[in-house]
Predict the structure.
Amino acid sequence: MLTSSRGLAASLVLASFTLSAPAFAQVVNPADEVEEDTQGPITISANVAIASEYRFRGVDLSGGEIAVQGGFDLATNSGFYVGAWASSLDETTVGYGSTELDIYGGWSGEFASGLSADVGVIGYLYPDAGPGDFDYVEVYGSVGFAMGPAEATVGVAYAPEQDSLGGTDNFYVYTDVGVGIPGTPVSLTGHVGYTDGFLTYTTDSKAFDWSIGAETALYGPLSISAAYVGAEGDIPAGAYDFVDDAIVVTLSASF
């Protein structure tokens, strides 16, 4: 997605931000979802969300409006997974149509006590974007660390040269941290990322993004999160400010 996740998406709006997924919109790591069936060789899981706006690596892709999102994953006992995730977009400001669809596959698992990895490939698709090249492919990888109630992830995502990226490439590196507050259902989260390439909506193709927030379970599969999200970059005079800071609230459910 200018952009999935202008994908691990993450993605990441906080709805696409997870501690163990790549920071692209909208990829949701199957390991982070509630499993429906742990008895068979394949686990099927799904997620839905409504967010006050869709942020991808700090960039506003819904024009500051509410975004409806959702996806599903198929994961094997060996750690391989495939999935799809979608979000509504703002047609006027973004110019990629009204829908983003992310298709992805990869492997995730623990390779040592407290250490995990996630690698894969994701395609960002814009089915109603109109004439022109918009779809693109990105590869991603991350390493996660867990110690007690705290977790941290370091990851990268790279989109090679493609016509949809203006004939250039895009490189993204990020760190996510999270810690659960003992005795409560609340977790605190933080994120810092850096983009070098086409997917910044800035004049110099470079931007830092960040978020700090909290999330908590509500009832059953429902949870809610809130984060202060932003990105730093030069916006052309008179253009829509895609990287203006915002508070993003997301109500989500995993099944």
Summary: Helices lie at 91-94. Residues 1-24, 26-38 have pLDDT under 50 and may be disordered.
